[in-house]
Design goal:
By secondary structure, the protein is of the alpha+beta class. The chain is built from 9 helices and 8 strands. A 4-stranded mixed β-sheet has the order 1-2-3-4. The protein has a two-stranded antiparallel ribbon with strand order 5-6.
Length: 306
């Protein structure tokens, strides 16, 4: 996944920082300089900027939807293969589904808007009087449609793959749904590699490698979640975020001495070097909260891991 390394902060909107990776500028120069249907390269540049705006709006859809279900939002990073919204929705299938589906829904909402602009261009006779602007509107509408279709492919970690995973979560649980989505993603990678070779597309080849890496990561995460789900749970504690009781055992590692220990047995103190940790990470949902909050959360009810 893209990181802040090599990224430039553009602005902050609604408490969300937006970054763009330096490689995006190379892609901008490459695509804006290619021959196109316009009379000059300035219109090529406007088309790329429109793509930038569509992807950014899509990512804000993820962020705002995550907030609406009580999740935490972080940054947006734009890079040549698209954008990434760093969100942390509650570990519930419904919350995950809405946080992911909101992105493609933004593209769906743009369809009538862009179609209306194209219709207006036709009505005003821009095809003859202003052919560059008319072509630009048609291309932007097409770009939005292609991004929607591509994103909805049921291949993890594309939005379609994550939506599939959320739907399977209702039936098979958190770990098994991620396992199934990752396996389906591997099948999609094979198809995408074949399409990249057939069309001789470097962009599709790079995208296939990106998806392959994320499918592998999802598979390993699913295996780890499955192992954690089988471990007996400690009574009297519950994660304040997902309400799941923590597993028993030395499953937390001290950041100072590197030794594993059971943080709930020692109340956040490493028994090897004496380091006190102010927060404890939930191994099920990944959030970190003070152990005192795990006590209070347990009083309100505890559920077992799926």
């Amino acid at each position: 996944m893209p990181t802040h390394r090599g990224s430039i902060r553009l602005f902050r909107l609604a408490g969300i920082d937006v970054y763009v990776h330096w490689a995006w500028f190379l892609a901008f120069l490459y695509f804006s300089s290619r021959p196109h249907a316009y009379s000059n390269y300035g219109w090529n540049a406007l088309e790329i900027l429109a793509l930038f705006a569509i992807v950014l709006t899509h990512e804000f859809g993820h962020q705002l939807a995550c907030r609406s279900v009580g999740g935490k939002t972080h940054d947006i990073i734009l890079w040549p293969l698209g954008g990434v919204a760093y969100v942390n929705p509650p570990q519930r299938p419904g919350a995950q589904l809405w946080s992911i589906a909101a992105g493609p829904l933004v593209n769906v909402g743009l369809i009538p808007v862009l179609s209306g602009l194209v219709a207006a261009s036709t009505h005003l006779g821009w095809y003859d009087s202003n052919p560059n602007a008319d072509q630009l509107l048609h291309n932007i509408r097409f770009i939005n449609f292609v991004l929607l279709i591509f994103n909805m492919m049921p291949v993890y970690p594309l939005d379609g793959g994550q939506i599939l995973r959320s739907l399977l979560w209702f039936i098979f649980g958190r770990a098994n749904s991620l396992m199934a989505a990752s396996v389906i993603g591997f099948i999609g990678v094979v198809a995408l590699i074949g399409l990249a070779i057939f069309s001789q597309s470097l962009w599709l080849g790079i995208m296939a490698v990106f998806i392959l890496m994320n499918c592998w990561g999802g598979l390993k995460q699913a295996q780890a979640l499955a192992k954690i789900a089988k471990i007996p749970r400690r009574e009297g504690f519950a994660c304040p975020s997902c309400k799941t009781a923590p597993p028993l055992g030395a499953l937390w590692r001290c950041g100072k001495c590197g030794q594993a220990f059971d943080t709930f047995l020692t109340l956040g103190t490493c028994p090897h070097c004496g380091t006190q940790f102010n927060v404890t990470q939930c191994l099920d949902c990944g959030t970190s909260r003070p152990i005192s909050e795990w006590h209070s959360s347990a009083e309100g009810g505890v559920r077992s891991a799926e």
